[in-house]
Each structure stands twice: as structure tokens, then as C-alpha cells.
Amino acid sequence: MKNFRYCNPVEIVFGKGQIATLPELIPADVTVMITFGGGSIKKNGVYDQVMKALAGRKVVEFGGIEPNPRYETLMKAVAEVKQKNVGFLLAVGGGSVLDGTKFIAAAAKFEGAEPWDILDKGAEVKETVPLATVITLPATGSESNALAVISRESTQEKLMFATPKVFPKFAVIDPETNFSLPMIQVSNGIVDTFVHVSELYMTYPQNAPLQDGMAESIYRVLVDEGPKVFKDPKNYDIRANLCWAATWGLNWWIAQGVVEDWTTHVIGHEVTAFTGTDHAQTLALLLPAVWKHQRNEKGDKLVQFGKRVFGLTETDREKMIDQVIERTKAFFREVGIDASKKAYGVTDEVCKKIVDVFTQRNAKLGEHGKIGPKEVVEIFALCD
């Protein structure tokens, strides 16, 4: 296990009815901008709960943040933040709304001429507008980390930035807000969490038994609870467990002291950029193919995972790896995602465009930095 230093300053406010605590958490003398997506919060009662809690406060709204938040949309919000002297941002929705709000917070205070440089060139973020969230979709773990992924429609790019300056001040997580979610969003959230854990766990043994055990616990919650939610969608306890698993899936505690992968995510971001496919669905398509391609490098952890998470007893190493990959694909189907290139429009032409992107970047992906354009071609060939 390598050296590390880490502090997650996010206050988690978890449970039924916790939206009502917002007045205790947000300064009373600031203009609050509520950010949200397509308007579902106004149909499911969450918006009403938030506005009731903030009654008497100066509140402005910015809606329309996309599932893959677009730079062009977010810059409109930045203009409003500056014009209306917004002093606090409250993202109400899923991880995409929060990711977009993190960028708004950074871009509104950015000193350079082009805020896209935060993503494209790693420009320093010196100051941000304070932000927090009422998270309504367990998936990205964005409520407990300092990352955000933003798309730019004009250039078909999807890039990430990270800075401690965009840690949410707090995150309200009420599992009851999940009850009205379309089940495809529930499916996406479960798969997204599963793959987040995989990017941190599925590498090679690193003398990190605590991190491994924590990751395996998150996996088991997803495997045990995930299929249940489709049979009993109003079960609070199941929803609560999935919410907490999603938060832990990417709050970075299981990442401390270990080498990470992120191959599946990086390629998946490009698939989304070129096809518009839901992020989690690209992950379900790519993860088994990455594991197939990297079976020698990841073999020890794949075997460990098979025994500890799926309870497999196969003693032949290669057969065990095959079983783990097939069982993972079966789990994705159990939670509603049967991924395929054909279904998602990942044609040979799209694959070529994505490989060209990695060639231009001289990309070297994976925990060993050995996955380049040639290997990306091979991974695509292994996708269903």
C-alpha cells in the first residue's frame, strides 16, 4: 500500500425528511441558486420540499442541466450567478446536476478568459462559489467527492476536472426521493456504482486488505440489493442501502493507498460523446471487455472477487475468470441493462473515431499505463 493523505470534508445528512434541515445548513444572508435538470423535481415533490425549507430566503432557479451536463448550458448559469450575485449553489437532482453545478461554482470565479481551460488544460481553480446538494439519484457518488465530468457539444468532448475547491459543503440524501425515479435510472445508478468500485479495486493485489474488504462489501450490497429494488421499488430499506453504497462507491476512501484503473470510464466517456448513450450503459458494455483483455494483469483480483463477492468455487484459474466475467454480465442483466454495441450504435465508424481521439492524445490507460489506441481497438472487438 502506497503513502497517502486524504480528507473528505462533506457533511452527509441522511434519511427521511432531511430536506427540512436545509435552513440549518445554508447561510441565511446569501442568494441561493437552485440548479436542477429536466424538471422531474417539480413533479415528484422534491422541489416543493426544498422551497418550503428555504421559505423567506432569496432563491433563484436554473433548470435544464442535461444528463451529460453541457458546457454551453452551464455557461448560461455562470452568467446568471454573476448577474444575480449568487452566493450559494444548491444542486437538486442526480450526479449530472451536481457535476454541472461544480463546474458552475468554479467557472463563476475563474480568473482566466476561457473556463473550458479548467477541463481541457487543467487550469487552476483558486476560488469557487460554495455549493451543496440534495441528491435524488444514487449513482455517481458526486455528492461525496471533488470530481466532475462535463461535455462540450461543439467539439464532442467529454472531460473531467477535480479540485478540493468543489467538495460540496453538505449532501442531503433522502432515499424516499428515489421512489419516483424511472427504473432505467435506477439500473444506471447500480451499474455506475458497481463500475466505480471496479476502477478502484480490480487491478492487482496491493497489500490493502481493508480497502479490498470495504470494496467487496459495497459490491455485495449491490449484488444482493440491486435486483430486489425492481420487485419492491417503494421499499425504503433497499433504497437506503443502494444510496449509501453509491456514496461509498466514489467517496475515495477505498481508493486511498492503491493504484487505480479508469480504463472503462475513459473509453466510456468517448462512447457517450459520440453516440449519446447513457454513461452507465457504456460502462456495462465495456467493463467485461476490459476484464477479458486484461485477464492476465487482473487475474488475481478477478479470482479474489469471484470467491468473495459471487461465492464461486471454481479451482481452475482461467475457468474462474470466465465465470466472473459471465456472472458480472448476468448481474447487469438482472438490474436491467443488457449491453451491446449494436443496441448503443457503437458502429465500426464510431470505434474508429474514438480510437483516433486516443491516438491524438497519445493515451496510455490502465493501472500499468499500457493500454493505448491499439489496445482500445482490441477491447472494442471483445465487446458484445
Q: Roughly what percent helix?
A: 40-55%
Strand arrangement within the widest β-sheet reads 1-8-5-4-2-3
Sequence stretches where pLDDT stays below 50 over 5 or more residues? none
Q: Provide a count of the helices.
A: 16
Q: SSE order, as H and E?
A: EHEHEHEHHEEEEHHHHHHHHHHH
- Determine Rg (CA atoms, Å): 20 Å
Main sheet overview: 6 strands, parallel
Structural class: alpha/beta
What is the residue-mean pLDDT, rounded to a whole number? 96
Count of β-strands: 8
Q: Quick one: overall form?
A: globular
Separation, N- and C-terminal Cα atoms: 35 Å
**Relative strand content:** 5-15%
Question: Top keywords for this entry?
Answer:
48% helix; six-stranded parallel beta sheet; alpha/beta; 384 residues; 16 helices; 8 strands; two-stranded antiparallel ribbon
